[in-house]
Specification:
This protein is mainly beta. The protein has 1 helix and 5 strands, in the order αβββββ. The protein has one domain: SH3 type barrels, CATH 2.30.30.100. A 5-stranded antiparallel β-sheet has the order 4-3-2-1-5, with no helix packed on it. Pfam families: SH3_Rv0428c.
Length: 87
């Protein structure tokens, strides 16, 4: 089952502050996926902050589908995969 079949139009302005994935229609055809935290939704313009800190703006009319996704777990440092060992 692909991502497209699991997307719905569930994202609303009530989801500000939540992490989501948004599938956006591109002007020349095709789609692009954006994953980030919905920062604002004003006058049909969504602002999403990606994990790298950049903000992407998308018009609501270009959104083909969306869904809320779990918050991203903190990044683990190498070597901290397992419990400490004695000896």
């Amino acid at each position: 089952m692909g991502l497209a079949s699991r997307l719905s139009a569930e994202l609303t302005p009530d989801h500000i502050g939540r992490r989501a994935t948004v599938r956006v229609r591109l002007p020349g055809g095709g789609f692009r996926d954006i994953v980030g935290v919905l920062e604002s939704w004003q006058d049909g313009l969504l602002r999403m902050r990606r994990r790298d800190g950049t903000v992407t703006e998308v018009t609501a009319e270009d959104v083909a589908g969306s869904r809320i996704v779990p918050q991203q777990p903190p990044t683990r440092r190498r070597g901290s995969e397992g419990p400490p060992t004695d000896g």
